[in-house]
Design a protein that fits this description.
By secondary structure, the chain is mostly helical. It has one domain: Cytochrome c-like domain (Cytochrome Bc1 Complex, Chain D, domain 2). The relative contact order is 0.14. Bound molecules: heme C (HEC).
C-alpha cells in the first residue's frame, strides 16, 4: 500500500517536471513574437539583443532612434534597460550599444 502511494507521488513528480520544461520551452518560443517587422541584421550583438532585449517589450521602439543616436547615446539607454532588469554584463552592454549604434544608429 505504502509502496503504491510512493509510485503515484513519483509519477506526479515526473508530470510536474514535464510541465515545467514545457513552460520554459513556451517562454523561449514566445521571444520569436517580439520582433514585429524588425529585422536584426547579422552582426556581433544580435544574439545578445534577442536574449536580453525582448523579454519585457517588443523592439518596435528601437528604429525610431536610427537617425539620431550613435554608440554614445545608445549606451546610456542600454544601461537604463539593465537598471530595469535586462541581463547584460559590462562587456555585453558595450557590444549591444555598438550594435545598436551601427545598425540602428548613426555610426
Ligand atoms: C526588464 C525589462 C526590460 C528589458 C529586458 C529591456 N527593456 Fe527596454 N524598456 C523597459 C521599460 C520598463 C521601458 C519604458 C521605461 C523607460 O523608457 O525607462 C523600456 C523602454 C525602452 C525603449 C524606449 C521605447 C520607446 O518607444 O521610446 C527602448 C528603445 C528600449 N527599451 C530598448 C531596449 C533594449 C535595446 C534592450 C536590451 C538592451 C531593452 N530595452 C531591454 C524595460 C525593459
Amino acid at each position: 500500500m505504502g509502496r503504491h502511494h510512493g509510485l503515484i507521488a513519483f509519477r506526479l513528480f515526473l508530470a510536474a517536471l514535464c510541465v515545467g520544461s514545457l513552460t520554459a520551452q513556451g517562454a523561449e518560443d514566445a521571444q520569436e513574437y517580439y520582433e514585429p517587422g524588425i529585422v536584426l541584421p547579422t552582426g556581433e550583438g544580435r544574439e545578445h539583443i534577442l536574449r536580453a532585449c525582448t523579454r519585457c517589450h517588443t523592439l518596435e521602439g528601437v528604429p525610431a532612434y536610427s537617425k539620431y543616436w550613435g554608440y554614445e547615446r545608445w549606451l546610456p539607454m542600454v544601461e537604463n534597460m539593465v537598471q530595469h532588469g535586462s541581463r547584460l554584463n559590462e562587456e555585453e552592454k558595450i557590444i549591444v550599444a555598438r550594435y545598436l549604434g551601427k545598425y540602428f544608429g548613426t555610426d
